[in-house]
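Regression test attached.
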Amino acid sequence: GAVVSQHPSRVICKSGTSVKIECRSLDFQATTMFWYRQFPKQSLMLMATSNEGSKATYEQGVEKDKFLINHASLTLSTLTVTSAHPEDSSFYICSARVGVNTEAFFGQGTRLTVV
Amino acid sequence: AQTVTQSQPEMSVQEAETVTLSCTYDTSESDYYLFWYKQPPSRQMILVIRQEAYKQQNATENRFSVNFQKAAKSFSLKISDSQLGDAAMYFCAYRSANGGSNYKLTFGKGTLLTVNP
């Protein structure tokens, strides 16, 4: 099956700093990537959808200036949490899809802790 | 907008027994996909099974099978011969087949399955 690699798996940062999370499709080219946020014992909440070479589409209520998404190539998308605060602490998951009728494959997630 | 409802926050099953997880959804579309994902303690999302709405035959994958009732908008997951490794959070998910919203997945809230030895 297709492999999506997410890095880092865990990160701790100081309040006010920015942190970047990478999502790579290792053995396929991903036309679309999705970023999710998951709170403990809750479901995945879609934050944004990104298509290679175009601006991300953010879900209602997600601050696009705080959660910067870049999808510069068909194998890499990044999520940058800017000016992080403790309330941004969460589990972030990416997924990637190669075609319109194919599965979305998930990265292993990133646990962000802002102190 | 589509919604997915999982009415069982938690379920438990004895090892080797069978358990059924419930899922209902709401949509006005006729063509779509339904999925069950498993999220073990590692939190890696794993696809368990998928069902195309245009197919009447229920999908099966080894010990996992679904009961897809399109008219009732119901999509339950049956796990037979439960194993300790089946313990996880299970999410039901919906995806449009007509290109709406880039084919994003809509997830239910999840059912936490415990398997007792």
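Expected vs. actual: identical. Chain A has a mean pLDDT of 92.
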